[in-house]
């Protein structure tokens, strides 16, 4: 059994912890929160044996093998870094950090400590996304010419909410845009150049449209938004057909292969839980094997995605404290 410790007790921690119960080799043994009462309530709700009012105390728990960091973006770096220095494996919510420099630091610390680290880009491990990669690699739709993906939905403007707060790493790109960018780079690699256009509210990107350029005219057209009502769908266009991922592409239950002179080929998935269990199983498998990172979400790719996001944010004029 792999012993898990959860840092933070917000909505994402609640859902992911519930999905951990769907993984036979995962056992949640501790939870921490700055509010000890919240930690105790979370532990009671999920049947977790120990709760802590300070995550440093949880890092000293010998029964915790891997730490899941579910804090706001701005706290990812310090919490994950301390966990790595304590010798704990880390699964850290995306984006790994709010800056490329901090992301590079975490990767460096993980490698020096010889400890497992992975960004929690859970979409990568969904069975249909794994199938997408295989279909593309097998040339089912020929050579890829473009990737289109959008993730946007209206969020009420509230300067006190983390999504609108620069100090909390707010804005659409880091919270939502990381999904389209990660999908595109999973299939096409790091782009030659990035062009971004959007608008700011309270110093964070309320919306962003990205054009990623690749050799020979290949491109990715991506968008994220806190103000627009987007379909949250994705399409991969090839020379011999296309693959469509209906809403919502970050948690797909259907994938459609469309080729000329052929009926659409539909692949479906019946999800149990919310879908986070696949990344939890990946971490357990890698830790059991003694691996220090995941080949499906390698650290170099996390850094590459962060470079793209950083370039886009710089062009939009977003800077975080």
UniProtKB/TrEMBL annotation:
<dbReference type="Pfam" id="PF01408">
    <property type="entry name" value="GFO_IDH_MocA"/>
</dbReference>
<dbReference type="InterPro" id="IPR055170">
    <property type="entry name" value="GFO_IDH_MocA-like_dom"/>
</dbReference>
<comment type="similarity">
    <text>Belongs to the Gfo/Idh/MocA family.</text>
</comment>
<protein>
    <submittedName>
        <fullName>Dehydrogenase</fullName>
    </submittedName>
</protein>
<dbReference type="InterPro" id="IPR036291">
    <property type="entry name" value="NAD(P)-bd_dom_sf"/>
</dbReference>
<dbReference type="Pfam" id="PF22725">
    <property type="entry name" value="GFO_IDH_MocA_C3"/>
</dbReference>
<feature type="domain" description="GFO/IDH/MocA-like oxidoreductase">
    <location>
        <begin position="130"/>
        <end position="244"/>
    </location>
</feature>
<dbReference type="InterPro" id="IPR000683">
    <property type="entry name" value="Gfo/Idh/MocA-like_OxRdtase_N"/>
</dbReference>
<dbReference type="InterPro" id="IPR050984">
    <property type="entry name" value="Gfo/Idh/MocA_domain"/>
</dbReference>
<keyword id="KW-0560">Oxidoreductase</keyword>
<feature type="domain" description="Gfo/Idh/MocA-like oxidoreductase N-terminal">
    <location>
        <begin position="3"/>
        <end position="119"/>
    </location>
</feature>
């Amino acid at each position: 059994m792999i012993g898990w410790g959860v840092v933070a007790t917000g909505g994402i921690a609640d859902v992911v912890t519930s999905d951990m119960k769907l993984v036979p080799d995962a056992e949640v043994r501790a939870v921490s929160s700055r509010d000890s009462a919240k930690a105790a309530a979370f532990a009671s709700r999920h049947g977790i044996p120990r709760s802590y009012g300070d995550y440093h105390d949880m890092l000293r728990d010998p029964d915790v093998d891997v730490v899941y960091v579910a804090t706001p973006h701005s706290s990812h770096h310090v919490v994950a870094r301390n966990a790595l220095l304590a010798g704990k494996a880390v699964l850290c919510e995306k984006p790994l950090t709010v800056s490329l420099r901090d992301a590079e630091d975490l990767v460096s610390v993980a490698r020096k400590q010889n400890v497992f680290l992975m960004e929690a880009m859970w979409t990568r491990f969904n069975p249909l996304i794994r199938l997408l990669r295989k279909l593309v690699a097998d040339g089912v739709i020929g050579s890829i010419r473009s990737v289109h993906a959008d993730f946007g939905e209206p969020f009420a403007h509230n300067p006190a909410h983390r999504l609108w707060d620069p100090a909390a790493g707010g804005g659409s790109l880091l919270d939502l845009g990381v999904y389209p960018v990660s999908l595109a780079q999973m299939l096409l690699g790091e782009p030659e150049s990035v062009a971004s256009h959007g608008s700011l509210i309270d110093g964070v990107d309320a919306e962003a449209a990205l054009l990623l350029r690749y050799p020979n005219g290949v491109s990715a057209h991506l968008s994220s938004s806190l103000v627009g009502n987007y379909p949250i769908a994705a399409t991969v266009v090839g020379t011999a057909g296309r693959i469509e991922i209906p809403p919502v592409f970050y948690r797909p239950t259907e994938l459609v292969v469309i080729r000329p002179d052929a009926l659409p080929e539909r692949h479906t998935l019946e999800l149990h839980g919310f879908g986070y269990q696949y990344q939890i199983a990946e971490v357990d498998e890698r830790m059991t094997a003694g691996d220090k990172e995941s080949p499906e979400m390698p650290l170099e790719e996390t850094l590459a995605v962060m470079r793209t996001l950083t370039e886009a944010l710089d062009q939009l004029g977003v800077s975080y404290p």
